[in-house]
Amino acid sequence: MDSITIKDLEVDAYIGVTADERSRLQKLLITVEIERDLGHAGRTDTDAATTPYDVVAEMIRKLIAARPRKLIEAVAYDIAEAILGKRMAEAVTVEVKKFSVPRSQYVSVTIRREQ
């Protein structure tokens, strides 16, 4: 299967288990791998005003901004469901990185979902 990857899309989110943590914006890095047939795009090389990855990146930003969440697992789940729900992929892998554990680079979760 072909794929498109958006690596480490930076978004700001109200996220955290405690109300105090959710009261301030925190940076998340989101990587999305969208599995779909890219044959048509490769053969036709059509000129589009927006590319599929632009649409996905904007959708992710709006989804994150829509409401606070307690867990990065919920962020990953919501992103995967939105992409599959719009039939933008046959399968999707989502990794969400959060910078909240002292003396570590980050904490991340990765999920993969299929149609």
Q: How would you portray this structure in words?
A:
The protein is of the alpha+beta class. The protein has helices at 19-22, 39-44, 52-66, 72-85, and strands spanning 3-14, 25-35, 91-98, 107-114. The chain has a single domain (3-114), classed as GTP Cyclohydrolase I, domain 2. The chain has 4 helices and 4 strands; from the N terminus they run E-H-E-H-H-H-E-E. It has a 4-stranded antiparallel beta sheet with strand order 1-2-3-4, with helices on one face. A hairpin with an 8-residue loop joins strand 3 (91-98) and strand 4 (107-114). Helix 3 packs across helix 4. The longest helix is centred in the middle third of the chain and has 15 residues, at 52-66. The protein is elongated, with a radius of gyration of 15 Å.
Produce a short descriptive summary.
By secondary structure, this protein is α+β, with helices and mostly antiparallel strands.
